Fold:
Amino acid sequence: MSHDAVVALADGRVFTGEQAVGIGLVDTLGTYEDAVKIAAELGGVRGEPSIVKERKRQSWLIPLLGDMGETVKDLKQEILDRPILSYRFAGPY
Structure:
């Protein structure tokens, strides 16, 4: 797609999927599974592609503490969200 064509479309409008295909913004419409199959074909994957999903690590302490674990987790987040003060000596050395 040329730069001029992109600039003509990049004005904040919202397009339906069918409109996006028609004007060349996307190649095709499909589901997540369709996207996985297309990516596997483009990547040369033979057979059924496997999906690797990131798992969020959770501290072993949270489940151990039960309901109190959620309180600890919330407290940790509250501490991390607080602004950090820093003092610097600006005097002569």
Notes: The first helix runs from residue 3 to 9.
